[in-house]
Amino acid sequence: MKIPYFAYVSGVSFFIPAAVGLYKWKQQNRIMRLFVLFCCFSALHVSVEYIFGRLGKPTQGLSNFHQLLELVVILFLYLKKSKDNRFRSALFASSIVYIIIWLSNKKFFESIDKINVVVQSSGRFLLIFCSILALYDLIKMSVSKITNDPVFWIGAGTIIYAAGTIIVITMGNIILEMGVDYFIFFWHINWGLTIIANLFYARSFLCNWS
Q: Where are the domains of the chain?
């Protein structure tokens, strides 16, 4: 099947936060520089997946590693931002539990040509849940507009991106049974949400960590 043009736009959008982050590198603290590096890795990841896909090589292992890195980096940002010890402990425990699940899947269940729906979807649900808590924590402790804080844009972008991914991962087979047109339609929704999320990530580098 020919790749829709909107999919290319979605893929290119991963380079936007990477470019903005590198441009604003000197203005970022060490925590946000870690997020810049993650955005650069995401852009590289999309490029490699595209090349491997054109060559007919499996990309599932790379996707699984990217998801693990994504979860660890974003939860680390939330942990460093929060001053609530209970929330920090929950974030740390969630990271450890997911790493154990991910390693178990890697060791015993990972297939190079199939998506592990349980691992992929659980990671997305965890990101959404922790992002909602991070935004709530930010609202509680914020003394200025929350839109001036990078965590607001990262948290909102993560919720949007993870929600779009969950739709096509958990309901992929059901949607496909409805017909190819429906399947492509929902993928367009996912690509659109991905573009918005990447714009939000880029916006976070225009804020000051406080």
A: 5-204
